[in-house]
Amino acid sequence: MSTTPAIGMDRQPQAALAERCLYYMSMMREIEDRIERKLYRQGKIVGGVYVGRGQEAIPVGTALVARPDDVMLPAHRDLAVFLIRGVSAGRIFAQYMGREGGLTRGRDGNMHMGDLKHGIVAIISALAATVPVAAGVAMALRYKGIEGVAFSYFGDGATSRGDWHEGVNFAAVQKLPVVFICNNNQYAYSTPLSAQMACANVADRGPAYNIPAEIVDGNDVLAVHEATQRARAHAGSGKGPYLLECKTFRMTGHSAHDAAHYVPQGLFEEWGKMDPITRLEARMLAEGWAGQEALDRARAAVHREVDEAVAWAEQSPFPDAATLEEDVYESR
Amino acid sequence: MSTTYLEAIRQGMWEEMERDPNVFLLGEDIGVYGGAFKVTAGFFEHFGEKRVVDTPISEAAIVGAAIGAGLMGLRPVAEMQFADFITCGFDQIVNFAAKCRYRWGAAVPMVVRAPSGGGIHGGPFHSQNPEMWFVRTPGLKVVAPATAYDAKGLIKSAIRDNDPVIFFEHKGLYRRIKEDLPAEDYTVPIGVAKVAREGRDLSIITYGAMVWTALEAAGKLAEEGASVEVVDLRTLVPLDRETVCASVKKTSKALLLHEDTRTGGMAGELAATLTEAVFEYLDGPIVRVTAPDTPVPYSPPLEQAFLPNVEKVVEKARWLWRY
Q1: By residue range, what is the domain housing residue B294?
Q2: Is residue B165 in some structural domain?
Q3: Are residues B131 and B237 in the same domain?
Q4: What is the pLDDT of residues B96-119, one digit of tens each?
Q5: What ipTM describes this predicted complex?
Q6: Touching B: A residues 128-147, CB under 8 Å
Q7: What structural domains does chain A harbor?
Q8: Do B103 and A116 touch (CB under 8 A)?
């Protein structure tokens, strides 16, 4: 079902990278649009829906840098990480719909999913809880002599939690191979950044732990990709963790049931002009990396792929209630 | 040569580390210093800093890192310096570790060692028995050995287990009890209780340090003619209902004993279990002897009043025996 475009040998590497970025960002946008604006409203998704609309450049630009031995710990607005690691869109829809075909087979919903076969650890609802876990993953990679890096994702609000500070501090003390990736979308549910922290940037927290911290335009996927290469090179070289703050904006409410009345309308308009997908397409046209026709074809292909994925998920059965008590412990 | 409870835990961890290179330790002051109670003395020198990791004072990071390492196939043993501080890593244990397998099929082999219990004048933050917070969290296994033999056998089983295990080791037993241990490798299975003393008239069901209190009480009651059976749970989750129920079916009377406070304690769960399973066999009310619902006090007369002891157990057991 997944159709990653092949990297053409005869084209500029930058053009090929842009094409991959566009594919994954468009897939994430289309999948989440279907989830939030169609399936949720049809009652086919019974639980919470938290999308990353407008933030697609961050999971895409970072995860495309990850190598096979790297381990991803995505947060709840990083859907593209799953696609890039080879999880099919159909399984993601099935996950949201509580079907057997989802990554948690109906045991959990939405972005609460992981699969170690794809090198992905599942988040829990308590934000920043995966940050110390990422440190442990990185410890294990080093322990086993694997040259992998842990990619630890979180939002701005998560950096207020003690787990975040304990995890970053521990990783810094141990010089662990972790890239900490913040999607600073400026709102934690309804709480604006100014009520979340007294410093101007999440990156300002880096010096307190003596780790390098960099701010990048989180709506420019190629810039995110380039910064992540620096971050990964640092973390993978034994020098310890790297903090990458991607500045962006949450173009939705916290969840599908939140109309975000508390966000000044002007901000949506302002940030709408910096939409990462529109921006990348414009760049591709301007650089001559693609023509309008090719972009239209790519968009149509994404629609078709998502149609097929939804159909696959809808035919996936609901879990059997008789399995309720299975897998709490290892079966013997 | 007799081995103390503390030395038994130490030996168990040492042997597992020698046996399996994936086993490693992390915690506060466990390396160079050898641990607040010296359970890990000598480990750092022998196994090195890679396998004996001194951490910052960060219980959430200790447990979180153990989870991450466990997910990657290592077998971390995390030490809480005192069981009381496990609260700082609570979310990682009950929300992260406990639910991984059920949610997304990921095994978290991990042991969290929690030195618990009172009687050492530790006061409210160095004496607690917080096992029930974990007993009522599906996905965790909870172990509380009473003897040196079981402490060694159970720490080894816990390390080999593929689910997260909370290992409550009673500080009051560390150097107080000792016994001869087998020279060869052995384990004690998780989830299997033991009849520590056989009897006909009444069952005392307990665990941890209170096993010794129960045995002493049983000895005193024997002088009065009562035949008291003592069941040592050894594991709280999964609970060995079969052994507990078999004992009460035989004696028809149950006294439930723990050092933990009363409300929501293990005794309540055992009482409900017995009522559901063996009500028809009971010849008397189910009786509880527990600490009262207060924080653990510091001053000796207060702490003595707080802790269950032989006299309290004998008095209640005698009443139940004569009922």
Answers
A1: 194-322
A2: yes
A3: no
A4: 999 999 999 999 999 999 999 999
A5: 0.96
A6: 129, 131-141, 143-144
A7: 13-315 (3.40.50.970)
A8: no
